[in-house]
Every structure is written in structure tokens, then in C-alpha cells.
Specification:
Blueprint: H1 5-18, E1 21-28, E2 34-36, E3 41-43, E4 46-57, E5 73-79, E6 89-93, E7 99-111, E8 120-126
Antiparallel strand pairs: 1-4, 1-6, 2-3, 4-5, 5-8, 6-7, 7-8
């Protein structure tokens, strides 16, 4: 019998969700901003994806000032959408539902052992 990666993804969501911060991934849709005549401004269309995340710091020895800069955060997240490095942002909320931080997604990788089931994402984020 093979490994049940769907059950593993559900377990990751449950475990990270119980020891985490709530987060919302914001992805842009399309390439061009949309003009809003009411506000007389251009607005980008976005998609929001709920999830949970655990935020930590990079070890000092990994901070090189080029790829990983001082202040970058290492985030493990269970998300309902896929991050777009360089385009996505991640809003982090406390347990009371108050927005505490907003990060830009610099790099993203999937933990995807069977090439079909994404268990979680590893993100490099920057304010």
C-alpha cells in the first residue's frame, strides 16, 4: 500500500493550523491594472487565498545580503492557492483576527512528494 499524500496534506493543515498564524495569500490576476472611473485610479485585480503559516527567521550564517537579506522571514504555509514569487504578498493575522504584518513573497517552493498533492509551501518573504 502506498503513502496517502492527501491524508498527509490534511494532517499538515491541521497541525500548522493549530500552532500558527492565519494568513492570506494575495495573488495578482492578469498583467494590466483595471481603471476604476469612480476612484479615478488603476487597480490590480487580485485573488485571495486563505491559509495558515508558521514564521521564523533565517539563521545568521544564511544571510548573505544578496539572496537572503537581513530581516527576511522563512515561512512554512498551508495555502489554498499557489504563491507567485515576486508578485504575491502574504498578510499575517493574529489569533484575534487583526492584521499584524504584510510580506512580499521573494521565493517559493512546494513540498509535493507525488507531483500531484501539495502538502505545504516554503516561502522566503520580505517586508
Amino acid at each position: 500500500m502506498g503513502i496517502n499524500y492527501i491524508a498527509m496534506a490534511a494532517a499538515a493543515k491541521r497541525l500548522i493550523g493549530s500552532n500558527r498564524a492565519k494568513c492570506v495569500l494575495i495573488n495578482p490576476v492578469g498583467n494590466k491594472p483595471v481603471y476604476d472611473p469612480v476612484t479615478n485610479e488603476y487597480e490590480k485585480e487580485i485573488e485571495k487565498h486563505d491559509g495558515y503559516c508558521i514564521i521564523s527567521n533565517y539563521e545568521d550564517r544564511l544571510v548573505d545580503g544578496t539572496v537572503i537579506k537581513a530581516g527576511d522571514r522563512k515561512i512554512v504555509a498551508v495555502l489554498s492557492g499557489e504563491p507567485k514569487p515576486g508578485l504575491s504578498s502574504l498578510e499575517v493575522y493574529n489569533k484575534a483576527g487583526k492584521l499584524t504584518d504584510t510580506y512580499h513573497v521573494i521565493n517559493s517552493s512546494q513540498v509535493n512528494p507525488d507531483a500531484n498533492t501539495v502538502i505545504l509551501y516554503r516561502l522566503q518573504c520580505r517586508k
